Amino acid sequence: MPHTAFRPEEHGFAFVNAWPLNPEQTVELRQTLSRSAQAAARDVRASIGGFDISGMVQRVADMWADANLPTHYGMCGGMAFAAADYFRAGTPLPRGKDWNDLPLDDSPRSRALRDYLWQRQVESFVINAPQLLAWMVMLHLPLPFAGPRWLLERTKAEWRALKTKIDAGEPWPICLIGSSRSPFDNHQVLAIGYDETGPDTGVISLYDMNSPGRAQTITLDMRGRELIAVETSPSPARGQLRGFFVEQYTPKPPPKLPAA
What we know:
alpha+beta; 43% helix; 6 helices; six-stranded antiparallel β-sheet; two-stranded antiparallel sheet; 260 residues; globular
């Protein structure tokens, strides 16, 4: 099983991914999604041969965002990007002590770490939310060329791309897309290994910040008309996994945090 040197119990955060958002962060999240909806509309038009349904795509994406805008939200993308940043830099990760040791605003060090995770969260969203929304729209679009089969064919290509990253020893963020119509129910994780068990079947090993402390897995079966997946850390809110894509990610040097 090709595997990077990343170990969740050492290189992943010990605390779980559950964060309260302040009003400014909620507004920033909504504005980012609105811009992403515009880009998603362009992506969908390109995916279906130039057939222009961009107005509908943007309305649907905006409707989903407004209906589900949270007051509490995970920083899964920020935590995945940050863990990859620290790993690549060879710098010890400020893991925290346990699941409940969230860095909030109770010390300069905690505040600086939280701000860094939020910054990386927003950056992960800005560059990857357009593809997330485009894939969600194509999953739920009531047209014969859309639906789970559309996502499956693209997921097969992403599976090949992910294996190339892992073969190079690079832990890499991926976006998991379920059957939910809320963009906030979907999830970003860090892929750290894989096992190719047969033609169009395999297992992805993950650092999943919703279940920290040990590696999680997703078993993939892409031989049918839709993706069949078994997850060791499933999400009832996200629903059945319908696809995933390899995210755009550019490493950044981790910040130097205050001592306390």
